[in-house]
Amino acid sequence: MNRRTFLKGASAGIAATSLLGSKAVANSAKELRVGLIGCGGRGTGAAIQALNADPDVVLYAMGDLTADRLQQSRSGLERFGDRLQADSTRQFVGFDAFEKVIAQVDVILLATPPVFRPQHLRAAVEAGCHVFCEKPVAVDGAGVRSVIETATMAQAKGLSLASGFCWRSAFGHRALYQRIHQGEIGKVVGVHATYMAGQLWSKERQEGWSELDYQLRNWVYYAQLGGDHVVEQAIHSVDKILWAKSDETPSSVMASGGRETRTEAKYGNIFDHFSAVYDWADGTQATLQCRQMTGCHMENLDRIIGSTGIAYVDGWANKFVIKGDNAWKYDGPSNDMYQTEHDDLFESIRNGSAMNQGVDMAHSTLAAIMTRMSAYTGKVVTWDQALNSQLELTPAQWVGGPGVDASVPIPGKTKLI
Ligand SMILES: NC(=O)c1ccc[n+]([C@@H]2O[C@H](COP(=O)([O-])OP(=O)(O)OC[C@H]3O[C@@H](n4cnc5c(N)ncnc54)[C@H](O)[C@@H]3O)[C@@H](O)[C@H]2O)c1
């Protein structure tokens, strides 16, 4: 039985059972209509992976804030021929594009800047869609609380909710973390993680753009839109710290950070480096160092210290080693982790197993947000403070025009809210 036959067979059996209440039921025996919200680099990649994951997936609707990004994405997908069904009647532009896309499809791919994620995710799950949800899933505690609620809602509806914490889909990582969870390095007592990267792209201001247009095009530089780079990028390391701890959440964090090289106004209000120490109730400690600076050493490493061994992860080089009582080295295949994310998602939709990574993705996001809160304020931040934080970075309503406040936080002066 090939994969296609298996998927069709499996899907026929689930129509009347676990997917009740989900729009996917109607289409599960044949095509699945997928909608993309946020047609940038990652969204376009996610659409390709969705189309490759299952032969009966069609890209049915697309939504973006701007027509140029949508068209750019669409031209990158033309090779899918008649499976690219987002014709001009199903291309939506603007802050309300997400609602129009969601109304058309069974599965939603969410890949806008992070600030929109809680709202878009809620709308998708309320409408009964399965979801692929890029990381980070929020930029503040309010957003995380909303996502946790939505994840519970998705569970109750039997919907699949897959996260974009892509390293969890890389075969080498999976093999290593499985060994850690099986006790091959004893009890995990510490983790040292680094995400030392270079500077990111930035887009020149163009005539006719409002301040908000400019900021949204350069969303990575505004904490209110992207969360700051510890939430947007180094969150992968934060996620792997939590993974090493079997997703047990830290009790507090003490972080510092600042803006050393990326100081011009065009770089908004985010920092360019952070360092953090996390504590768990059982005495485990983890450290994280991350930066986005050009001309500096770059690495992305995790060293997981156990009572009987140490695990070394070099994600970029795909190297995984355990030293100690149960010495081991990964010699299995490497995979396209982004593709595996979608293979798993669509398989779960077809076989009705409703994978749900919602709470874990929200927790990893909160751990990164609490790191930013601690560095911005100069205070120790507990998990409960971050989760119950009344800081709301997301405007109640999106209207064009003025942008977000671009003042740079000052540790010791910026208030912990
Ligand atoms: N998992 C990974 O390895 C990985 C890699 C890259 C990016 N990402 C994440 O994917 C997301 C998107 O990143 P990107 O690199 O594709 O950014 P991008 O800027 O290339 O794309 C974002 C797109 O969203 C659109 N957009 C903005 N606001 C919108 C709204 N309200 N409604 C609809 N569309 C809107 C933009 O116009 C743009 O086309 C981010 O959360 C980022 O952190 C994850």
Relative helix content: 25-40%
How many angstroms does the end-to-end distance come to? Answer: 57 Å
Number of helices: 15
CATH topology term of the largest domain? Dihydrodipicolinate Reductase, domain 2
Strand order of the largest sheet: 14-13-12-11-7-10-9-8-15
Supply the CATH architecture of the largest domain. Answer: 2-Layer Sandwich
Low-confidence stretches: 1-20
Q: What does the main sheet amount to?
A: 9 strands, mixed
Binned strand content? 15-25%
What is the level 1 CATH name of the largest domain?
Answer: Alpha Beta
Question: What series of H and E elements makes up the topology?
Answer: HHEHEHEHEHEHEHEHHHHEEEEEEEHHEH
Short description:
This protein is α/β, with parallel strands linked by helices. It folds into 2 domains: 3-167 and 341-357, NAD(P)-binding Rossmann-like Domain (Rossmann fold, 3-Layer(aba) Sandwich); 170-333 and 364-387, Dihydrodipicolinate Reductase, domain 2 (2-Layer Sandwich), CATH 3.30.360.
Output the keywords.
six-stranded parallel beta sheet, 20% strand, disordered N terminus, Rossmann fold, 417 residues, nine-stranded mixed beta sheet, 15 helices, alpha/beta
Describe the structure.
It is a single chain. The chain is α/β, with parallel strands linked by helices and 417 residues long. It folds into two domains: 3-167 and 341-357, 3-Layer(aba) Sandwich (Rossmann fold); 170-333 and 364-387, Dihydrodipicolinate Reductase, domain 2 (2-Layer Sandwich), CATH 3.30.360.10. Helix content is 35%, strand content 20%. The protein contains 15 helices and 15 strands. It has helices at 3-14, 24-27, 41-53, 67-75, 97-102, 117-126, 141-157, 171-181, 211-217, 223-226, 229-232, 235-244, 337-351, 358-377, 383-387; strands spanning 32-37, 57-64, 91-93, 107-110, 130-133, 161-163, 188-197, 252-258, 273-279, 285-292, 299-306, 309-314, 319-324, 328-329, 380-382. It has a nine-stranded mixed beta sheet. A six-stranded parallel beta sheet has the order 3-2-1-4-5-6, with helices on both faces. A hairpin with a 2-residue loop joins strand 11 and strand 12 (309-314). Helix 12 (235-244) crosses helix 14. The longest helix is centred in the C-terminal third of the chain and has 20 residues, at 358-377. The chain is globular and about 60 Å long. The site of nicotinamide-adenine-dinucleotide has 26 residues, from helix 3, strand 2 and helix 5.
